[in-house]
Amino acid sequence: MLSRIFSPAYRLFTTSATSASPATMKLVESAISDNSVTIFSKTTCPFCSSTKSLFATKFPNVPAKVLELDEIEDGPAIQSYLAQKTGQRTVPNVFVNSEHIGGNDSTQAAFKSGKLSTMLKA
Questions:
Q1: Nearest to residue 85, comparing CAs of 39, 38, 16, 33?
Q2: At what angle do helices 75-86 and 22-33 cross, to 10 degrees?
Q3: For the chain, does the N or the C end have fewer beta carbons within 10 angstroms?
Q4: Which among 25, 6, 9, 26 has a CA at the least distance from the CA of 17?
Q5: Which residues, in sequence order, are CB contacts of 74 under 8 Å at separation 6+?
Q6: Is 102 in a helix, a strand, or coil?
Q7: Where's the Glutaredoxin domain (predicted)?
Q8: Cα separations (Å) of 111 from 20, 45, 58, 119?
Q9: pLDDT value at residue 4
Q10: What is the C-alpha separation between 100 and 43, in angstroms, rounded?
């Protein structure tokens, strides 16, 4: 009985390794590997705005690839794949030189500690 109650919720919060299409995986992996900074974002997210503003103001010479998941047809599939890849279901989801930084709090902390500047100089 409990499995009937919790099974739908479990499926909602888990992703299968095969759930993302090859095209989705390629798009994500290319965006991460081909850019110094990649931000998976949503246009209505205030935390995403804060992260994008940080890079625009503090690192204006470093182009950031921003993918607005609420404006991309495959946005939900991309977010699901990122959750599988990183363990993070939320946006922003930030990568610097192909290294996963995390969300806004982690990105802001990396900036304040100087780690972000060091990573971008490498």
A1: 16
A2: 70
A3: N
A4: 25
A5: 23, 24, 27
A6: strand
A7: 37-101
A8: 32, 20, 9, 10
A9: 47
A10: 21
Confidence at residue 19, expressed as pLDDT on a 0 to 100 scale: 73
The interaxial angle of helices 46-58 and 104-113, nearest 10 deg, is 30
- Tell me whether residue 14 is in a domain: no
Give me the CATH number covering residue 70: 3.40.30.10
Mean pLDDT across the chain? 89
Q: How many domains does the chain have?
A: 1
Q: Would you say residue 56 lies in a domain?
A: yes
Helix (H, G, I), strand (E, B) or coil at 15: coil
DSSP string, 18-72: T-S-HHHHHHHHHHHHT-SEEEEE-TT-HHHHHHHHHHHHH-TTS-EEEEETTSS
Query: Which regions of the chain are under pLDDT 70?
Result: 1-18, 122
The structure tokens listed for 120 are 């971008």
Which uninterrupted H or E stretch holds 12? helix 2-13
Six token digits for residue 119: 């990573």
Write the single-letter amino acid at 13.
Answer: F
Assess if residue 116 is contained within a domain. yes
